[in-house]
């Protein structure tokens, strides 16, 4: 019985160690591990009882009292259990060795990167002190549920007003609005978003009248600092927003924060249409996007000088309808040359689609000066910094966006991409894991990072977690198989990629050949689309120009010719200045 108990304990311990290592990789948390521990603990006593009552015989399991002692094989069974214990101990020692010398260094590097990221986040938060705030979505108290857009819109406008203050850390919309409809205590919100203050409120609309209640809360102690109720007409909505913003600034030490910002004026019909359009666009589906476009156009017919309407229309058009987006952006800039979003959109489009790097970069600099705390501006600027090869600037901008908007998946993915291209692989791995925790996906990026870190097996497992789109999965899988030296699997995957997708995505095939060191084959595939116009070439080649998997081609004259055609030659980029405007203390910490 004692041998059974010892064998059970050793085997259970080994099972627990393996479970703790494997379960997180399949998305199981601590609760699942605890269940395994509890089950094994409960099973210990029954195992001892069974070992006491029964004995294994050549004819099967029998009660010990029914066995002739002269026929007992307990001695042999005991020796077998001794061997089992020895085997399990050897496995345990092997596990310890692998864990210490293989897994530990990778975990340590990951923890170091995560600690560095957390340290930078803390440095950013500390640089603002108590001057930090989250504007939670206002509650719609109207009888008509369709007025929800009005409550959301007013809260978002207040958030945007406060975000104009450089010395105030304002949590962005996607993070603050993640608490919408959830009954969570204010101190919990403060802890999760790392802010000192929360602004919350409600909106009630009845006819042409509106009642807005707002309250500023010192978040960690959950105490009210200020509250006010406004009973006005819709025509007074901008005055109300200004008054709320001014009151918040006054309570947050006006001398330090500077003057309170003011809302951009328009008539209430235009504003209502605009907020409804923005509400629909934030829902993120095609039908709502089309309705949003109709509404914002109606708003601009009523007030063609309303700049937020033009920038929202540019956002709706996006890259797919670039010329229309550019026209909307230019109309916004004609009205307000300093508008941050208009400058950011104009700068990005000018760099991406018109190859005018100098003009585009100047516009992005103006956007950053006007709104250094706007995550959308920061993300756009970070992507452009990557296009022109300024990876340190891209990392600093993306880090700031992610810290201002800690629940923004786009911010986290953008940050991981910037760190990846900058060669900060441990930090990139930590960022992409944060991205995956917030909603899954990102396995191709994660696998690419692991592959460059030298862990091809883990990279292959990551790639196989996300098999769509198929061409993307096959091309990444081929990279890992080639690195692992699995020649037959590699050639089979490359053949499948080539036959199924080569005509449509030849540059992804080229990427595999480049990584394998087959330069001539890579350039052959890179030249498989001679019919591309310059604009399409620039946009598509921009996906690969800094790709580390093309690194072996980077000094080849043929690669430099492609870069020159894309307007990204080393000589040209050397003349481009990009002055990133960030608070000095944050820039220092980010470096």
In brief, what are we looking at here?
The chain has 28 helices and 8 strands. With 591 residues, it is α/β, with parallel strands linked by helices.
Keywords:
591 residues; alpha/beta; 6-stranded mixed β-sheet; two-stranded antiparallel sheet; 28 helices; 8 strands; flat
Percent of residues in beta strands: 5-15%
Helix content: 55-70%
What spatial form do the alpha-carbon principal axes imply? flat
* Derived structural class: alpha/beta
Radius of gyration: 30 Å
Low-confidence stretches: 69-73, 121-127, 585-591
Mean pLDDT: 82
Number of helices: 28
Ends distance:
62 Å
- The first-level CATH class of the domain at 132-263 is given as Alpha Beta
By CATH, the architecture of the domain at 132-263 is named 3-Layer(aba) Sandwich
Q: Could you tell me the CATH topology label of the domain at 132-263.
A: Rossmann fold
Q: Can you identify the CATH superfamily of the domain at 132-263? A: ABC-type transport auxiliary lipoprotein component
Largest sheet: 6 strands, mixed
Extended strand count = 8
Protein described:
- It contains 28 helices and eight strands.
- The model is unreliable at 69-73, 121-127 and 585-591 (pLDDT under 50).
- It has helices at 2-22, 30-53, 74-128, 148-162, 173-176, 186-193, 237-251, 254-257, 268-283, 286-302, 307-317, 322-335, 340-354, 357-370, 375-387, 391-404, 409-422, 425-439, 443-452, 456-463, 470-484, 487-501, 506-515, 519-526, 534-541, 557-565, 570-573, 584-590, and strands at residues 54-57, 60-63, 132-135, 139-140, 169-170, 197-206, 209-218, 223-233.
- Helix 17 runs antiparallel to helix 18.
- Among the domains are: 2-112, no CATH class; 132-263, Rossmann fold (3-Layer(aba) Sandwich), CATH 3.40.50.10610.
- Strands 3, 4, 5, 6, 7 and 8 form a six-stranded mixed sheet that branches. Strands 1-2 form a two-stranded antiparallel ribbon.
- With 591 residues, the chain is an alpha/beta fold.
- The relative contact order is 0.06.
């Amino acid at each position: 019985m004692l041998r059974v108990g010892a064998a059970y304990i050793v085997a259970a311990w080994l099972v627990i160690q393996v479970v703790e290592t494997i379960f997180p990789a399949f998305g199981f948390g601590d609760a699942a591990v605890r269940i395994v521990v509890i089950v094994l603990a409960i099973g210990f006593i029954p195992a001892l009882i069974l070992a006491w009552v029964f004995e294994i015989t050549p004819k099967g399991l029998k009660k010990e009292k029914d066995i002739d002692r002269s026929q007992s094989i307990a001695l042999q069974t005991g020796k077998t259990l001794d061997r089992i214990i020895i085997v399990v101990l050897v496995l345990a020692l092997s596990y310890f060795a692998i864990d210490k010398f293989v897994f530990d260094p990778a975990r340590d590097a990951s923890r170091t990167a995560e600690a560095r990221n957390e340290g930078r986040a803390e440095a950013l938060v500390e640089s603002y002190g108590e001057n930090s705030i989250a504007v939670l979505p206002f509650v719609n108290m109207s009888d008509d549920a369709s007025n929800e857009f009005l409550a959301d819109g007013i809260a978002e406008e207040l958030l945007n007003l406060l975000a104009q203050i450089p010395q105030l850390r304002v949590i962005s919309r996607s993070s603050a609005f993640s608490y919408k409809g959830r009954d969570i205590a204010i101190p919990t919100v403060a802890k999760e978003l790392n802010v000192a203050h929360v602004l919350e409120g409600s909106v009630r609309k009845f006819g042409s009248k509106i009642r807005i209640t707002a309250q500023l809360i010192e978040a960690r102690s959950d105490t009210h600092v200020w509250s006010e109720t406004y009973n006005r007409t819709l025509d007074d909505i901008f005055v109300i927003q200004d008054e709320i913003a001014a009151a918040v600034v006054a309570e947050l030490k006006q001398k330090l924060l500077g003057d309170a910002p003011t809302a951009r004026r328009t008539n209430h019909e235009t504003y209502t249409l605009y907020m409804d359009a923005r509400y629909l666009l934030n829902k993120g589906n095609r039908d709502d996007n089309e309705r949003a476009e109709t509404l914002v156009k109606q708003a601009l017919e009523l007030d063609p000088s309303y700049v937020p309407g033009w920038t929202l229309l540019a956002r709706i058009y996006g890259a797919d309808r670039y010329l229309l987006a550019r026209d909307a952006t230019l109309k916004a800039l004609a009205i307000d040359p300093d508008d941050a979003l208009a400058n950011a959109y104009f700068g990005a489009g000018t760099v991406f689609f018109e190859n005018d790097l100098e003009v585009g970069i100047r516009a992005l600099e103006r956007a950053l000066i006007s709104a250094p705390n706007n995550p959308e501006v920061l993300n756009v600027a970070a992507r452009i910094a990557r296009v022109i090869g300024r990876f340190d600037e891209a990392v600093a901008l993306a880090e700031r966006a992610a810290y201002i908007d800690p629940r923004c998946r786009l911010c986290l993915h953008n940050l991981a991409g910037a760190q990846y291209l900058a060669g900060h692989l441990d930090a990139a791995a930590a960022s992409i894991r944060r991205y995956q925790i917030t909603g899954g996906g990102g396995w191709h990026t994660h696998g690419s990072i692991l592959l460059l870190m030298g862990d091809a097996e883990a990279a292959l497992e990551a790639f196989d977690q996300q098999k769509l789109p198929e061409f993307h999965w096959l091309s990444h899988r081929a990279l890992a198989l080639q690195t692992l030296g699995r020649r037959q699997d590699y050639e089979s995957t490359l053949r499948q990629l080539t036959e199924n997708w080569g005509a449509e995505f030849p540059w992804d095939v080229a990427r595999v050949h480049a990584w394998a060191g087959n330069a001539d084959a890579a350039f052959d595939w890179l030249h498989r689309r001679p019919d591309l116009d310059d604009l399409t070439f620039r946009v598509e080649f921009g996906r690969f120009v800094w790709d580390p998997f093309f690194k072996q081609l980077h000094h080849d004259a043929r690669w430099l010719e492609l870069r020159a055609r894309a307007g990204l030659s080393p000589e040209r980029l050397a003349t481009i200045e990009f002055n990133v405007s960030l608070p000095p203390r944050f820039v220092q910490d980010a470096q």
